[in-house]
Amino acid sequence: MAEKKIGLQTVKFKNPPSIVSTASIVGPKEGEGPLREYFDLIISDDLYDEDSWEKAESKMAREAVRMALKKIGMTPDRVDYLFEGDLLNQITSSSFVARDLKIPFFGLYGACSTMTESLSLAAMITDGGYSDYAVAATSSHFSSAERQFRFPLELGTQRPPTAQWTVTGAGAAVVGRNGEGPYITYVTTGRVMDFGIKDANNMGAAMAPAAADTIIRHFKDTGFKPQDYDLIISGDLGQVGRQLTIDMVKENGYDISQNFTDCGIEIFDSDRQDVHAGASGCGCSAVVFCGYLYSQIKKGNIKRLLIMSTGALLSPTSTQQGESIPGIAHAVAIEGRI
Amino acid sequence: MDYIRAFLVGGTICLIGQILMEKTKLTSARILVIFVTAGVILGAVGVYKPIAEFGRAGASIPLTGFGYSLARGAIEEVQKNGIIGAFTGGIKAASAGMAAAVFFGYIMALIFKPRTKN
Amino acid sequence: MERSKEEEIKKDYLKMAEKVGPSSSFLKNCAAAFIVGGLICDVGQLVMNYFLSLGIPKDEVNSYVAAVMIFLGAFLTGIGVYDNIGKHAGAGSIVPITGFANSVVSPAMEFKREGYVFGVGAKMFVIAGPVLVYGISASIIVGLIYYFIR
What we know:
A: Peroxisomal Thiolase, Chain A, domain 1, 23% strand, C: 150 residues, mainly alpha, extended
């Protein structure tokens, strides 16, 4: 058996890689939310001086990577690998980042699970001894996602209460072989789960089975219990998905209702900001982690964190053809010190 | 009086649309298709005519009214010109609306830029 | 055996998801649709009465009203107002012909960045196209049936 693997789906790092730097950029609406003081840059116009939303998204992603490197005085040419993905067709936002920064690039598509997918891979390649510095990054943009997955922006439609709001934002994390933490200690890679939800306006319910499966698997593989973590946080399950996940995990004997929340719930103020069931998008868990959570671990307010980005693996074509929506979730355990 | 009747009839037709959307999760595009087709059928079987006479703009402004004028145009044109009227009548009757939609749609797209939502 | 158990779990899950889902404010939405839809029709009635007072014959006036209402719907979409009405009114602003105009203008504006032929020209009809296809086809069938049974 592989020496660093424990249980069925979990990796335990021998030399836990360190997250040496992060950066986050968000759009104006996210910048009005409760986490605003933790973001590195809040852009005032979501076109970000570009002439299309797709270009703006790619620019956010690029600047987030640059910013994360600049904080530790690094330049892109010293980075060994870039793991990055986004929501747009053929992940162009990410490949254009790689085109501009000229870092060796693995393009990922994990829908909104991309932040922990990229972190997992960056951590594994680092612990494996293949990299000194790897960057994990992702981005999403409300307007570019809306026009690709749903309707034109000016169309007068009504959003159902289960609908979620795609975050405009980009986050980047630099994973280093040596560093002073926070450390990535465990990675549980998720399976694709599909319980037959077909409503693209109810992605939280579509992703909850995958989220629950990964959490349960993580506890079984590692032997940890919910209370071993200060916080367990999912990517973008929203109100609906969070409740379903808690219920399903409970059926398997783990009570996470005390310390489990969701980035999509935390990033907006649901009373004041009209976002229905919460936020979604790759950028959601990316900016909440790279902005808020990273600083909390650094300060010692959170000692052990389990972050799990969640993705709904649908396309406009698959929805039109009546396919149900499969979900995926990857969990990454992060500790302040080891 | 005109306005009260238009309000009631138009409001009721929209209310039916809302109930359909809430109960079936139909998208707005499907609602539009259903309403136009329903207008054609209701017009053809003679149900829409009394509604139109009572509600005036309240019946002609909703898309069912668009369907109704398509059906009425086709039938009237068949009476005048025979079978070719089935093909020319509908579009003739609805031509002002269709041409306006294409023309104004294009002009507005040239002038304005879409904005993001809040 | 395995399979049927999996099916069972899925069925239970769909029920569970239904229960947890927040209820949309049904009555409020219906009231908004009724009122906004009624008001838009009143604007149409106003336009209609105006043209009638100019001496436009009764059987032609609908074309005038349709053109004006479509202009209004297109303009309100252009200045970014119509989607905000739609957020509250739902079917109240989708079902009137102004909503048809909204469905033409919104994709046309949105895809301007993809060019004027395959962007504006082609995308204009992503939503309105099906409406015309079904409306016109249905009217032709009605005309044909009428021809054969009259």
